[in-house]
């Protein structure tokens, strides 16, 4: 969940820091005070589209950062962070984004610079923002099957994973078949090319690690003089005029004379004895190595020519000799398949038939599980819609098989959400039946059902209650609170019913300071909440009647919250 949001030089915000708590938080205030700007900042922080127009006038850059505590979704988020080498300590994440006037945008997670796509990937797991426009995702038929899968993910995911493995196998075999079943002329051209490449690689007579061995030998020949002098100098120091061995021998003998009287001397005498023989062996080996050292210019030229040839081949067939050898073996297999094309095609067709049968069987099992999940989703969603005063609504998930049970990455299913909101009306596709207010309630019902399934840490509702009032407004408020019992919920609202339901109330105001317009946020006390609710009810002058209604509304919401919390505690 989001713990703290810091905004600097963003739109009309000069500098602002907001702390958030668990549960349900509302942001209220006059239109234009900056409530939506705060949501825009969160969107930007979690990978939304940036614009230089968002930078405060007269400033070079806008900066946004957020501290998030991982609660519901910590392991999946940590796994994604690990993929991108992002360190996560104490279950906290710090997201940062800076927008420059040049148009450049810099993203960081836990102070590590990341790409926008990484910020977006992790941001989606942290925060989900809903506005009336976001119902477009719900209307998109491409998302309906995904939602069904998510609803019974524990049962469906293993079946989907098993299907995808079989589907990928079938797809790979089909691609192999299509490659083999190409026209005769193309096949002949391919065979000629592969045969040429094989001849070139076989004539090269490659051996593993050959290039590394040649590189080492070339270094020795190129630095022959330095190597020879170093070896000779070391040998002379030990056996020649330096008398290194002789001096060690003298020291050893001196200690041996007194070794029987002193344990320390005895140990050091033994050490010098071992050292003497080690140095003697080293001197003999150095002399032998020196005797075999020989500068062979012809050999150096041979090595250079061979390495040049290997480098030429690497540009065509692989970065290393091992890569070229692997490629050589691969094209041998392909040449065999092309030369024996008819036999291999026959074998492939049998494998494809078996793989398709296995995948289809798996797809049918997945399809049955989806239908079971859909039935439960239909029942649960209708229960939620009744709470939102859509008691006459009918909802069903309509499944259609792909043409001829054609296998796709999603199996053999296509799903469409069908809805009727009024008695006597036929079921229609979601985008053809619901009004804006109804869509907001439907989306809220879906969010309530999926709050525990999707693992999102924080959900933000941006004025999704626009255009509703009375009992519907109260129902929306109650539904939002139910979501907040499992998911941190932030809400921008103009409805007193929603504001009264919150655990925390932030007032957003536009103020004049130093001849400049600034956004100010205040966490309201209990008494201040009553006054703010009263203002929201009247819209103009605060009256005693409005204050009384505000207190009554808070009492009603307190009763509802006790019932909900008792229910959740019991469960």
What descriptors fit this protein?
single chain, 571 residues, alpha/beta, Rossmann fold, six-stranded mixed β-sheet, 15 strands, 57% helix, 17% strand
Description:
The protein is of the alpha/beta class and 571 residues long. The protein has helices at residues 35-45, 74-83, 116-126, 135-139, 144-151, 153-180, 184-203, 210-222, 224-239, 244-256, 263-292, 297-317, 321-339, 341-387, 436-450, 470-484, 496-501, 526-538, 544-570; strands spanning 2-10, 13-19, 24-28, 61-69, 92-100, 105-109, 112-114, 127-131, 394-401, 413-420, 428-429, 458-462, 488-492, 504-513, 516-523. Helix 13 packs across helix 14 and helix 14 packs across helix 15 (436-450). The chain is extended and about 115 Å long. The model has no long low-confidence stretch (mean pLDDT 88).
In short:
The mean pLDDT is 88. It contains 19 helices and 15 strands. It has a domain at 2-131 and 456-570: P-loop containing nucleotide triphosphate hydrolases (Rossmann fold, 3-Layer(aba) Sandwich), CATH 3.40.50.300.
What is the 3D shape? extended
Strands ordered across the widest β-sheet: 2-1-4-5-6-7
Number of helices: 19
Tell me the distance between the termini: 23 Å
Strand residue content:
15-25%
């Amino acid at each position: 969940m989001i713990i703290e949001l810091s905004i600097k030089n963003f739109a009309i915000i000069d500098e602002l820091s907001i702390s958030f708590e668990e549960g349900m938080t509302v942001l209220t205030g006059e239109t234009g005070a900056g409530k939506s700007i705060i949501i825009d900042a969160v969107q930007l922080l979690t990978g939304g589209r940036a614009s230089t127009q968002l930078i405060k006038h007269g400033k070079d850059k806008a900066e946004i950062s957020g501290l998030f505590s991982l609660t519901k979704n910590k392991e999946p988020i940590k796994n994604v962070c690990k993929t991108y080498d992002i360190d996560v300590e104490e279950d906290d994440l710090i997201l940062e984004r800076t927008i420059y006037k040049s148009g450049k945008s810099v993203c960081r997670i836990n102070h590590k610079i990341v790409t926008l796509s990484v910020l977006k990937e992790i941001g989606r797991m942290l925060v989900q923002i809903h506005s009336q426009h976001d119902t477009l995702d719900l209307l998109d038929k491409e998302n309906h099957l995904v939602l069904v899968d998510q609803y019974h993910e524990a049962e469906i995911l293993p079946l989907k994973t098993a299907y995808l493995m079989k589907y990928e196998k079938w797809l790979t075999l089909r691609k192999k078949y299509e490659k083999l079943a190409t026209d005769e002329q193309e096949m002949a051209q391919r065979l000629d090319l592969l045969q040429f490449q094989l001849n070139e690689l076989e004539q090269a007579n490659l051996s593993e690690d050959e290039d590394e061995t040649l590189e080492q030998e070339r270094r020795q020949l190129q630095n022959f003089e330095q190597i020879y002098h170093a070896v000779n100098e070391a040998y002379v120091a030990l056996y020649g005029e330096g008398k290194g061995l002789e001096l060690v021998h003298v020291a050893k003998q001196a200690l041996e004379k007194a070794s029987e009287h002193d344990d320390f001397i005895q140990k050091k005498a033994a050490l010098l004895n071992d050292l003497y023989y080690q140095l003697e062996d080293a001197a003999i080996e150095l002399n032998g190595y020196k005797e075999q050292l020989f500068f062979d210019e012809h050999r150096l030229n041979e090595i250079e020519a061979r390495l040049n040839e290997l480098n030429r081949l690497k540009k065509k067939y692989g970065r290393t000799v091992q890569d070229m050898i692997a490629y050589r073996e691969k094209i041998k297999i392909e040449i065999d398949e092309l030369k024996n094309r008819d036999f291999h095609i026959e074998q492939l067709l049998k494998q494809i038939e078996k793989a398709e049968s296995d995948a289809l069987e798996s797809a049918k099992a997945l399809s049955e599980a989806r239908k079971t999940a859909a039935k439960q989703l239909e029942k649960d969603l209708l229960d939620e819609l009744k709470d939102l005063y859509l008691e006459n609504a009918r909802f069903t998930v309509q499944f259609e098989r792909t043409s001829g049970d054609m296998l796709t990455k999603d199996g053999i299913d296509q799903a469409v959400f069908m809805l009727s909101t009024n008695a006597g009306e036929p079921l229609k596709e979601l985008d053809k039946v619901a009004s804006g207010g109804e869509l907001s309630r439907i989306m809220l019902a879906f969010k309530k059902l999926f709050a525990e399934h999707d693992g999102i840490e924080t959900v933000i509702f941006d004025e999704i209650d626009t255009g509703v009032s009375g009992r519907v407004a109260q129902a929306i408020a109650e539904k939002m609170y139910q979501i907040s019992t499992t998911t941190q919920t932030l809400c921008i609202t103009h409805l007193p019913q929603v504001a009264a339901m919150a655990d925390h109330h932030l007032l957003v105001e536009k103020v004049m300071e130093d001849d400049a317009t600034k956004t100010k946020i205040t966490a309201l006390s209990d008494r201040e909440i009553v006054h703010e609710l009263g203002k929201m009810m009247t819209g103009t002058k605060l009256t005693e009647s409005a204050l009384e209604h505000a207190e009554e509304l808070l009492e009603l919401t307190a009763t509802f919250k006790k019932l909900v919390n008792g229910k959740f505690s019991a469960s």
